[in-house]
Amino acid sequence: MAGTVRILIDDRSIEVPAGMLVVDAAKQAGIDIPVFCYHPKLEPAGMCRMCLVEVGTIQVDPNTRQPLRDEEGRPVVRWMPRLQTACTTRVAEGMVVRTNTLQVREAQRAVLEFLLTSHPLDCPICDKGGECPLQNLTMRYGPAESRFDYWDKMHQEKRVPLGDLIILDRERCILCGRCIRFQEEIADDPVLGFSDRGRGMEIITFSDPPFASYFSGNTTDICPVGALTTTDFRFRARPWEMTPIPSICPHCPVGCNITLDIRPSARKGGWDILRVMPRQHEEVNEIWICDKGRFVHHFATAEDRLRQPLIRRDGELVPVSWEEALDRVAEAMRQAGSRAAGIIGDRLPNEDLYLFCKLFEEALGSPWVTMDPPVFGGEWVARYGVGVGTDFGRMGPGSLIVVMAGDLEEEAPVWFLRVRGAVRRGARLIVAGGKPQKAERYADPILRYRFGTEVLVLVGVLRVLLEENRVAPEALPRLEGLEALRKAVADYPLDEISDRTGVPVEPLKAFARAIAEAREVVFIFGREGVMDGEAFAGMAANVLALTGHVGRPNNGLLPLWPHANTQGALDFIGVRPLPEEVPALYVVGADPVGDGRVMPRTGFLVVQDLFLTETARMADVVLPAQSWAERDGTFTSGDRRVQRFYKAIPAVGEARGDWEIFVALALRLGQRWRYLSPEAVMDEIARTIPRYAGMDYGALAWTRPQWPPVGTARDLYFGGTARPNTAGLGRAWASEAEDPEARWPLFWKALEVPSEEVMLAVPTRRLYHEGTLIARTPHLRSWVVPWMARMHPETARRLQLEAGRMAIIQANSRMLRLPVEVDPAVPPQVILLPASLAPRAGAVQALPVEFRVEVGDGALPR
Predict the structure, then answer these.
(1) How far apart are CA 192 and CA 210, in angstroms?
(2) CA distances (Å), 288 to each of 254, 658, 862, in order?
(3) Closest Cα to residue 656, out of 366, 361, 355, 247?
(4) Angle made by CA atoms 360, 363, 366, in degrees to the nearest 5
(5) Buried b (16+ CB within 10 A) or exposed e, 788-797
(6) Residues in Cβ contact with 570 at an 8 Å cutoff, skipping those fewer than 6 apart
(7) Rounded to an integer, what distance in angstroms lies between the CA atom of residue 671 and that of residue 666?
(8) How confident is the model at residue 527 (pLDDT cuts 50, 70, 90)?
(9) E strand map for 170-268
(10) Residues with Cβ < 8 Å from 270, sequence gap 6 or more?
């Protein structure tokens, strides 16, 4: 086998990849070598010495090149004079390793004995008890008794906040450095470090605010002892008291696999989600999750959840029975008939989206349904989205990742981690945008364009590709509209494009050439500052189609959708304009009023949600829905992977699943629906929707062994407390370009680019932007980014505004009252607004507007 070597481990001959670490080679052979500092996702450190083994090489006769043998015919081994660390030693041909000799066992016993001299006897109260590598390895390899006096133990602080989310117990820390290395190598937030030396050495945080990272919770997972704990779980439960339920993170397009650890609540009755843990999926999130996914689960059990239906009487919303509420909604919808309209949020599962559309089409005969929020590019993602099997973990030399019009860490944090990992392995990254972002640390080149000119940048790329004849030969037979595109692009000289966009010609050419020359290209696109979404997504699709980077894994478009099931909402609902006025409007899982979007005027409004939102406060009927944790369902991630999540906790109050409410309404409207569970709905989807063919719950639950093996019962140390995936890896539906017979149409439309004098309102997304769900998470309160109007100091001076003062901003027909934040990173002539508040029409993301800005007072809009 090419690229492999044959070695002996404990007299067992195995063949492993050349250069593999001995600890990993042993693991592949089913042999456990104990470790503390080593972690398969981190660079070797060799700090704890727990993995010491005997290493030697088989002696070879220089004349015959055959192994020398002793009198008994056994190969002669030259052993190294000292034990070697298996986590830093790489395999070589003819290597011999012994992991279970007396010398090795004595070394392991000594390491554990030394560790325990400074370790407190906290097992009865330690959060790590029951899943602690130190505990497990002490039982397996440690001494039966200690020679050291308990009273000579090192005593340090027991509760040291490293920030609002993570607590350090310095007595328990064994100084393995896993947390420091994760923050430096994986997250690129080097905010932790060692202080002092010897027995006084300790972990400290360097950042202000402390432990400033979106990924701090992962350090508690990979900590091999109970030194790091999260503030929302510390001292709340032991592992055997909790039931782990597989789930999917509901917050962003990555689709991270998670586990909800639940237990009956001793404080308030019912059940609690005590913690959220990563669940291994090497093609999606590996074993990482961001802190939003870890901590923003408290909304599911929030005290202010809607618990029973409400009907408006005498101007007030009052509780009523489900029967009365459903009868009232059904009657209003029946009267509205084909003129009824619906708005449904992109956080809802696929099963609910499918039934909502079916309710309007079959029971009401109405075409007036749309998703919220409005997005663009869905048709191009369906045609040229990343190929099935795309995996950042397999990208390296020859791979190119482009991030354009989006902030990767803020909008899809775990994709940021995985893209950084690909760059460390040799992949190339190009970042193009209107303002700085963290991903630019690894980018070459960086293209900083003026907001609103992103389409023109891509036209420049197309012009370079066509002028330099860099159209992929394999793409030529499949392209449609090539000559028309060539003719249209010729009207845009590169010098003029450079002047309008602010991007010099040479970086523009380098951008185009990098795409053309790469073996594989993933083009990640967002919505930040985009004025014409259709044109932007279409031009990005053109670039990939011309260079042949579609229709196969690790190639294609990857959208930074706003939520976990935006792709599913596009698949089942889509974006379409609604009439300005309708007799009845049904809003599900969306808050158009609170988010500042215009919704149709209506004589009857029904809202179905978790909380009494601004839209719900205006409703005639309010229906309480279940959260994702209270029911089964599926989400479709940004790479079109359909994954299932499982019911974890009972419903709050009388809340019902959205699908269940739709079924009850359909029956009242004369339909003969017989769906008894979300699984039955998904069975129908798998039979009738081509994209989702065969994706029933059984198929989505399929799994396979993954490397590295983590969280198994025998070796919790190997991957910390990440959970193994036994509940399903999901399945992705194929883009149209993956059909070998499909044609690849190209796109063109007339361009509209704002002048440099026009002020732009640009919506931006921040991971911790103020919102309905994050507001129910007290642990993140100090991290929440309030609604503000951010602008360059020169812009503020010209508008006669001061930081911190309230400004009334008129953008088109929208009035916003926001405090001003002055930020030199914001480009001139631009005001950055929260994505949910920025004025927009349809899918327009940046508006050239005449601003009227006045100094004023008043509360923030809610």
Answers:
(1) 9
(2) 11, 30, 33
(3) 355
(4) 40
(5) bbbbbeebbe
(6) 371, 375, 378, 381, 382
(7) 5
(8) very high
(9) 192-195, 202-205, 228-230, 243-248, 257-264
(10) 264, 301, 649, 650, 652
DSSP character string of 161-181: ESSSSEEE-TTT-----HHHH
The bridge status of strand 166-168 relative to strand 160-161 is antiparallel
Give the pair of three-digit tokens for residue 61: 């006769």
The single residue listed with the structure tokens 């009845």 is 584
CA distance 207 to 215: 14
Selection from 136, 349, 290 nearest residue 225 by Cα: 136
Q: Which of 862, 859, 839, 857 is nearest to 849 (CA)?
A: 839
Show the beta-strand stretches assigned E in 425-468: 428-433, 446-448
Sheet holding 166-168, edge to edge: 160-161, 166-168, 228-230
State how far the Cα of 263 lies from the Cα of 236, in Å rounded to an integer: 10
How is residue 411 written in tokens?
């909008």
- Fill in the amino acid letter for 52: L
In the predicted model, what is the mean pLDDT of residues 405-426?
98
3-state secondary structure of 559: strand
pLDDT value at 743 more than 80: yes
Return the number of other C-beta atoms located less than 10 Å from residue 461's C-beta.
29
Say what the pLDDT of residue 594 is. 87
What integer pLDDT is reported at residue 844 of this predicted model?
Answer: 33
Backbone φ and ψ of 846, nearest 5°: -135, 135
Cβ pair 557, 540 in contact under 8 A? yes
Given a contact cutoff of 8 angstroms between Cβ atoms, the answer to whether 439 and 419 are in contact is yes
Q: Is the dihedral of CA 785, 788, 792, 794 positive or negative?
A: negative
